[in-house]
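dumping this here before i forget
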Amino acid sequence: MKTPVSPPDYGALIKALFDHQDSDLVWRIMSEFSPLDDKGRYLHWDKLRHLPAPEGLTNEQWWIGVKSSRQKLYQQLPLLDKQRKAFLFCVPDSVQRQLHWLDRHAAGSIQAEEAITNPQMRNTYLIRSLVEEAISSSQLEGASTTRHEAREMIRQQRAPRDKSEQMIFNNYQAMQFIHENKNEVLTPSIVFELQRIVTDKTLDDEDVAGRFRDGGGEIHVVDNQSQAILHTPPPANELEERLQRLCDFANSVNDEENSVFLHPVLKAIILHFMLAYDHPFCDGNGRTARALFYWAMANQGYWLLEFVSISKVIKAASVQYGKAFLYTETDENDVTYFLIHQLGVIHQAIEALHSYLDKKTHDISVTERLLQKNKRLSGKLNFRQLALLRHALKHPRFTYIVQEHQQSHGISYDVARKDLSELSDKLKLLVKTKQGKRYLFVVPPDFEQRINQK
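structure:
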């Protein structure tokens, strides 16, 4: 990834424009443009400089018009870069539309699929989302374990075999920690604990977990392929003050007197950005930053975000994720680039969740219809057992164990054992065998015939 070309000096461009002494041209440039182009994009100079400028203008003059319109909307954040300059943002129409969509689809008492409002089903999909985010967030940082292996490890409570599996296991623990602490105020201690969890047993020096990086020389964020320096974080001696400022920002209340309203979703995204910008730890900064975003969203009541994986979407277009950071840093600390990128990521993640739930709901309905005419089975199975039957129909000779069923659905060991025992001992659909001290429940070769038996 290349560092984007920084915009030309705005002050110099303005001076050149007014030195031109063409009032009509000045009026056109200063009044004709909005923060977005005619396709609704919030363009950085690195992109805009290659596009055909409006008729009669140079790309530099076009940039003056775009930048001037943004400056009229800029708001300062109480967060500073390493030169002690404030970060800025604006809320153009595209951001307003995304925020409105999210307020309708991800918060409050909205109408949602029964799959995540039904208490019996809710835990199943919450566990699934925790696993998915843990895998994707770790893979973004280099974990190489396959999804199948990672899911099996978590659901079977198997110990991680290597560093990649350990990273995924750690991320899963971090997401559970967030779920349990979403109603707390943010403190440096919580941030330290998140970083300690995501880096557990993966560091060369375990003593650096859960504390700031030291001041032993300047550190850099580099491109994995070219090794080019992309970002140099603030010095270590500023990190304590910067983290406290970030926590104060996270805990600030929008209705405080004289405070500027900041939408909770934008605040959550800015927390993500700033933790990554400050890079306060030796390792795990990206995973901790994304975890902090989830905490902020859950803390503000955007409960649907507990069921989605933003890292899966980010991983599919990781270059754009990196560019969103770099666009901000190279254009006067304008965080709007990162806000727009992350709003798009959240939107995609929620739509992916809806598609997944539609498919799973359809699968369960198909299984229920299959059993409707069977008096022995119709109405006798709970959601978890129906899901298992649907899985078993697609996976002949598959073996189920109590602990994996328990972890997949977030239920007690006794409830999981009862689910499987009913399918084997009472309904004779699975074959129960024993391996050492644990029972195995196997899909027999004649599984479909057993289902169809009256």
